[in-house]
Amino acid sequence: MSALPQVSAARPVASAVAAAPLLAVDAISLTFGGIKALTEVSFEVRPQEVFSIIGPNGAGKTSLLNCVSGRYRPSRGRIAFKGTDVTALRPNERCHLGIGRTFQNLALFNHMTVLDNIMVGRHHLLKNNFFTGALYWIGGAQREELEHRRAVEEIIDFLEITHIRKAIAGTLSYGLRKRVELARAIALKPDLILLDEPMAGMNLEEKEDMARYILDLNEEWGMTVIMIEHDMGVVMDVSHRIMVLDFGRKIAEGAPEAIIENPHVKTAYLGADVEMSVVADAGGPA
Is residue 154 scored above 90 in pLDDT? Predict the structure, then answer.
């Protein structure tokens, strides 16, 4: 991906190195019957970091993201977010704490407009409830609705999808639907956003655009990003640190230039004789 900056060293993290981790995953394991999807995986993600997870198909990457988001509950281990143990919390409870995500397979409401799909991401920020609903509607509903609309329009402008804001989501191209799903996740106002293969199925131009949006979310919007991605050119260019999984176990973690030279990573994922220039130009396996 020649349009992206080339990696010569790890990108500096905007937050202080000594800052407490935003997310701490401590020795989590996950089993499905007799199948071990994850085995004692531990890692930390710092505030305002882009942390990428790579590995062969079936390595446990999406299962790990599902544990962080609350879709799966690990068989063992602990997950802490902002210093709070969230291991037993449901996905909606983690959403309220500031964790948003996109999915490997699109999960849009195809019969709804782009604008309405993004507005769904603001739902948990609404202040009304059963007891206060009537008074709230009289006093502040219209004002709050306007605030949410403004926030959504800002996201639409940021992702350059103004021209499709009133289009039905199911009628859009795959690349645009991926962008709409990212918009809905951003609308949650997350401190941590989980991206599961955000560039899968995209052409080169779409990948370059998505990589730029991720960088801007991190650098300008201050979001911490955990990303699963197979395109190694993208991973090497946008990540501060990378973790590698193989058969549900962590085999390496570090800065991009260290990961690309790690012999265990070359053997398990990249290929034993791979060179960094080849990886950066060609991308990883599908």
Answer: yes
